[in-house]
Amino acid sequence: MAQEIETLTAPSSALFPGLTEFAPQSMAPTETPEGTYNIRLEAKLTGDGAPLKHGLVWRVFDPTTDESGKMPLLAQSEGGEALFEFEPGEYLVHVAFGLAGVTKKLIVPVYAADNRDFILNAGGLVLDAVSGNDGRIPISKLSFSIYADERDDNEQRPLVIAKVKPNQIVRLNEGTYHVVSEYGNVNAVIRSDIRVEAGKLTEATIQHRAANLTLKLVAEEGGEAIADTAWSITNSAGDLISESVGAFPSLVLAEGQYTAIARHKDNLYRRDFQVVAGRDTDVEVILDQ
User: pTM higher than 0.85 for the full model?
Assistant: First the structure.
């Protein structure tokens, strides 16, 4: 589902150090008596969209690199539209809206309006997930990582942002992104390719095929969990999936067949069990089994 991104609040201003503030009413550059130019910059999500009024970070750089190979930062502004006072010359201006951004060369004096109009071609992405058909997942057990769709020279997708919380708005340039959703920290991982459209907020809900389980070593069915128990979980192929210690450790497992192995006072007890998506349950291992 997509909806228009609403933008509100007032414009901001920023000046080069040592220069005075000036707020022209039009977009046309205004020459000052000192021979500098006051220029107002604005950014839009799309070419036909309204100027953004908040959430922008503007940075102006000298395009000539210093001894360290970096371009000196000359000025910065946060908010919406930005007002800068420039000496004649060449500059690189970068504007960021969350993780979306665009860079332009600005030559001063400049009189073409499109040189001061920054089109981000950006939108927003909100992620959530369910377990099974529609089971809610605790926020503490859910996280997302967003990767670029294109692979690098090592055939790896570059990480865009990690540890994204459910229902957090992530601002991104238009494009397709590879999203990895982790439920718990064992093997419940879902990967999805999601398209972000410029000027829109894309909401995506990922369906996990997993469940939250509590392990218990008991003397009898429904009995009290026995403390000082070490646990190992293996999958149907016999691979070790998880290890823990405690009377009733909790973990999330992807749908499938598993074996729980409990160690207590040098004795081993085991039980085969099945994980059904969205069906949270206790897995009891009985002492005499």
Answer: no
